Amino acid sequence: REYPGSLIQGDSLFSLTQSAKRSLSEIRSGNSEEAIEELEEVVELLEGRLNHYKATLSSHGIELPFYESNT
Predict the structure, then answer these.
(1) Residue 28: CB partners within 8 Å, gap ≥ 6?
(2) How many angstroms separate the CA atoms of 53 and 58, rounded?
(3) Long-range CB contact pairs, 12-17, < 8 A, 24+
(4) Across the chain, which distance is largest between two alpha carbons, in Å?
(5) CA distance 8 to 21
């Protein structure tokens, strides 16, 4: 591949997976408020990693391998 990858430590990967599973379980149980809270946590963690990735690429003069819309 042309672009650098992103490493997620095993414990962080496990935590993200558990949060996603809890969200799915809450949705299936009809508890959307709990699911939203879990998903907000997952999004926050992923955005932190994505922002670090973008900053790292930028500091090395590498363009992003994706286009970001304003959504």
Answers:
(1) none
(2) 9
(3) 12/45, 15/45, 16/42, 16/45, 16/46
(4) 47
(5) 18
**Three-state DSSP class for 54?**
helix
> What is each CA distance from 57 to 4, 7, 13, 25, in whole angstroms?
8, 14, 22, 36
CA-based end-to-end distance of the chain:
27
pTM of structure: 0.81
What is the CA 18 to chain-centroid distance, rounded? 13
Q: How far apart are CA 65 and CA 26, in angstroms?
A: 34
pLDDT band at 71 (very low <50, low <70, confident <90, very high): low
